[in-house]
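Extended Data, panel c. Modelled sequence:
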Amino acid sequence: KIAICDVKSEEGDVSNPSTQGAGNGFIPSATSFNVTYKPVVHSQSRGNATEICDYPLTQNYFSSDNTNAPLEVKFSVTYPAGGDLANLSEDNGFIGSSTFTKAEASSGKEGEYVWNEVGSLSLTTNATYLASDFKLDEDSRVIGRFYPKYFQVIASDWNYPGSQSFAYMNQPFDAVEFSVEALNANKAAIKNYAGFTTKAEFNLDDIDRYSGRFDAPSFGAGSWSNESDKSIGEFSISNSGQCIGSACWNKDLGGNYPDGPFNSVIGTAKSEIGLIYTNNADPVEYISNEGSNSRLVKQPDIRFGRIDLDDVGGNQGLTLHVPLRVEYWNGSRFIANPNDNQTDVKGVTAAERHIWPTGADADPKAVTLGAGGEVSSGSSRSVTATQAEPYRQQTRVWLDLDDSTNGLPWLKYNWDNKNAGEENPSSVVTFGIHRGNDRVIYRGEPGLTGQ
């Protein structure tokens, strides 16, 4: 029998664990491994040896002018089922025939191989003794598990909320999708990884300085398939309705408040959102077009947003329109967001506080917000303020962004700068602004300019 012995990696001297779907991996695909072949005596002559590779060698098993001591090796894929043998297939030019020299008969014959695929191999040896019809017993060994050397993000997509082309901080993305390709050590495609029973699972995080700002749930096992002889994994998550359970970039309520915009043509701040492992049995590295990282191909446009209300005044009893802006921080100041034509703000009252008149005789009336609608280029005058009945007064009224009618908590802001947390925006509404007396001005009246 030609025994298969000392299966180890060329680099690092890693011993073959002979694993398949479970257990430790062996080496990355497309890296070298060595096998020592030993012509050993029959088991009846093994003496005290218990392991076949410790049996005595038949040192006369070598080729010479008059004799031939052949070795035939053959590989097949044992895992995953139906896996591609790739470069170790005879159809692809693999030659498994060789012979033993005299030196190799006494010490073993070394063979070096590279497999460009992943999974586990079955290696089988056989030979015909000295050109006779007598065939030596076969020996076989499982070699593996070979695993990918790299994962590369090949596509990513941010599904912004609604029909926006950006997301506000603390606003959940509608969906996030990315695709990953498994590659060998030559950075070439592999087919078999899609057939693994256990594959890598990922989450997303900022892999640089903002790791505490981005949250996303686990993407789970994803969906792996063979696409044009490539192992491609596709992963996605959707919107849970809140930051918890969705992809979301959080505001920094500490020293960097406000900050951003991120990944904007007018800003300098950049996110580095990329893959992190949640489950991976094998030590696969990341690779990208920019180096050794898992950064997504596309980074999202993220802005610190808020709703700001102007103060407004008019005659008592009138319905007043409150100027409103959806703003974002441009790196130095807040400006109306020219890209926001989607945010729908309804006039929902959170609270009110009367400013004047005061005193025992004061009888200010309830002031409520109403109407509302979508902003245009970040601005709107569709929210209204009305009195329960006409009365000359001044009242501060807060717009409720938490209410389910609005559901815009990400557009709140720390307006008072006193307490932690963020508040609803407010407007000081004045009813009964003094207009003076109406009078008719006659043409030619003395004292008029421009005559």
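The helical segments are 102-107. This feature is highlighted in the accompanying rendering.
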